[in-house]
Design a protein that fits this description.
29% of the residues lie in helices and 35% in strands. The chain is an alpha+beta fold and 205 residues long. Helix 1 packs parallel to helix 2. The longest helix has 26 residues.
Length: 205
Amino acid sequence: MCELKTSCRLHLLSRPDGSVLFSEGETTVMAGIYGPVESKGSKALVEKSCVEAHFRPKSGLPGVKDRLHESVIRNVCEAAIAVSLYPRTSVVVVIQEMQNNGQLISCALNAACLAALDSGIDMKSMFGAVTCFLKRDETLVFIPPSSEDEIKAWFMFVFDSVEKDILASHTEGSFTVEQYRGALGISREESAKIFQFFKDSLQIK
């Protein structure tokens, strides 16, 4: 199976506490993390930090799919960040789509994790997202086929770095239980490469 090339550039933005320009193949996003900062009004939670996510599409106004992206990003970040350490504060995750070649959600999530690590905020674990495509010939690949007509289904999984448990998943298309399990298995293996990339990028031993 061909390997998906990843690259990143950290500290590109001056205003966020952590930022990254992250690419997976031909898909690229910019991510920024702000906080923890004091929450104002109804957003303040007594027991933990309030995590917000804002997804900005490449062009135009945010749509229904973008709201779905925001929900997934917010839920995963809230599960991974040690929110109980920062009561009455807000953590804001901002994702800007630059280029989408088929694995936008996983790219955005990986960028969010790198930005969080870059910011120095306390985390319970890293998280890594993988998108896997089921082609019409029944093969599973990580690199998006050149034509959408070649895609029968696609799977997106998010894993934590400690137990490799699933934090979130999303699927589209037609597939069997065996194909889902196959995609899950190879995606879990692929996530180890993502976590190693994070460590190499941040020089974590």
